[in-house]
Amino acid sequence: MPKNTERQYRYTQNRELSWLRFNQRVLEEAADPTVPALERLKFVSIFSSNQDEFFMVRVGSLFDLARMTPDDQDNKTGWTAAEQLHKIYRAVPGLLAMKKQIYTAVAEELNRSGIADLLPENLTAEELKQMNRFFKSVLLPVLSPILLGPNHPVPHLVNKRLYAVALLEDKKGRRAVGLVPMPEGAPPYLILPGGVRYVRTENVLLRWLPALFDGYSVRESCVIAVTRNADISFDEEKFEDNEEDFRSQMKKLLKQRDHLAVVRLELSCQVSPEFQKILSELIRVETHQVFVDSCPLNMRYVFSLVGELPKELALRLTYPASRPRWAEDLLTDQPILSQIQRRDRLLFYPYDSVEPFLRLLNEAAENPQVLSIKITIYRLASSSKIAQTLCRAAENGKEVLVLMELRARFDEENNLAWSKMLEESGCQVIYGTEGFKCHSKICLITLRNHNKTSYLTQIGTGNYNEKTNTMYTDLSLMTVDPAIGEDAAAFFRNMLVNRLDGEYRQLCVSPFRIKEMLLEQIDRQTALGKEGYICIKANSVTEREVIDKLAEASQAGVEVQLIIRGICCILPGVPGLTENIHVTSLVGRFLEHARIYLFGRGETEEIYISSADLMTRNLNRRVEIACPVHDPYLRSQLKWLLDCQLRDTAKASLMLPDGSYCRKHSAVPFDSQDYFLHHSPHIPAEPVKKPGRLSLWLKGLLKR
């Protein structure tokens, strides 16, 4: 903390507004003409799903704070929760206007390529016939139109489900409201013959509203969706005397999520003030919580639509296919386990394939020298090869310990299902510790050979999820360093007995050590003044103590380079305070997810990879791991990655002192992600030489 009596707000900004600026950068990718048209449509979809989660989680939690602790203030701005909500609701309409403009431009470009999102009034007579057949055969049998009134109150509106609504009028001029839920499992669109023309299902519903409410005329209609607070929290005290296990308790808790308060009402078009007032009162939202979004209210259909396109057309309008490469410093015809035992390795996802790690796990499941496999799991793929291998290892008699985090937001149900399957296969499954989410990514393989125990430890920055390993940039370190292995063994022992403050020689484990290490390292560089150097790559920076330490380093003359994808609450370039801090954000084809901490230059430099962002929740309220990287070869690879990203002039934006961003430019743009697709940091491994006839003869002679 600065020594001044008043907290410094001059070089900090609110985390929620910083996040909205991040999502704006996602939307700007959809406006980039160098990005293929279908990829631009995907970015609009990603922007929308990001915004949904933001309202469900962040806005939802601020609603709770405003109700429970109305006087609490954000430590970066001094705003209360109510003031933050006010700022958010004021900022969102501008983003929606930007989204509408970009979506319209992308839709026009796709239309020119023969991909058209059509309204019923734009269909030909033959297409209308097909649409009507679709309605009568697919939709009508499962529709439940409701005429709202005293005997039919507003039903429970499911979070983000689409509803067609209409302002109705009978022959006597009496007004009513009709509501039609989108049927569960209904196809999101109808593909029409000839080219790639389609009509979205919600527009089919709107077309048929007059027939569904016979005897009424439709004065106005639109599609609506509500967003509910999804920030559920697990209260351990509530369940401590309950005989049910944690998994059963989580199932009950998840049922509550869909019944929390509405924080946003979306309308697909502008309606009359009268109709909007009626809808607001029925759904119980304030005027500022109502947003008009003329783009599709649910854009998850985009990814399935791309899969239905003719192959040639899809190839022309998407990124060139990228296939993760086998890391060149690993031989394909040799066991991975023995190769790691000879030298540490580092995988760079998604440019490197996850296959070497999968093969390592498979080898461990079958190797008679392997005694145990211990692993932390936060998010798994829905059809996880990793989980299947763990099950097989347990069935083969290996001790398999899985620390499964059931509270991974929006992945709870998938984790619940896998935890049951793992237990049934003989794995020992535990569920976090003392209210702290376990976000660590660590796997420990224990071997015994000739009565000697050894360890192989894998530590990563991303989840054990084969799907996201092809979309997120992450790091995976595989090492036989005995000190790291012993620390990993101690970590799992500590987790089994709910000990969070364990002592470790190499690993830094939050909630007690990572922040302490960061502050110590920053202080060390601050003492060096202009000779000091800090480079941190992370997803977010919100922790106030770390922010203030970085400001102190800047004031001492230390060069501070921050590569922060999303939220960044420190403002760079503020005169006299953060002049030596530079903040770069990279938003591109792949989601930047790796965390790297680098301190110093030359012989004194220290480098860590970590699962932890520089956020209060990660450093103070989660179990996270930061691991030092000692091998010079691997350290050079990490520095190469950081240097390339700092040189990016194609997808990089620089933060300005007011918190806004400007794109970096150069005469010849350099796209670091594209560069990584075509250039590898690995030195190709030399094939293991087979022994010649003479050496084989000598070995045989010696055995005699």
Summarize the structure.
With 704 residues, the chain is α/β, with parallel strands linked by helices. The protein is 39% helix and 21% strand.
Folded structure, characterized:
By secondary structure, the protein is an alpha/beta fold. It has 21 helices and 27 strands. Strands 14, 18, 19, 20, 21, 23, 24, 25, 26 and 27 form a ten-stranded mixed beta sheet that branches. Strands 10, 11, 12, 13, 15, 16, 17 and 22 form an eight-stranded mixed beta sheet that branches. The protein has a six-stranded mixed beta sheet with strand order 2-4-3-7-8-9, with helices on both faces. It is globular and about 90 Å long. The longest helix has 32 residues, at 37-68. Residues 1-5 and 234-244 have low confidence and may be disordered. The chain has three domains: 15-317, Polyphosphate kinase middle domain (polyphosphate kinase like, 2-Layer Sandwich); 336-496, 2-Layer Sandwich (Endonuclease, Chain A); 508-678, Endonuclease Chain A (Endonuclease, Chain A), CATH 3.30.870.
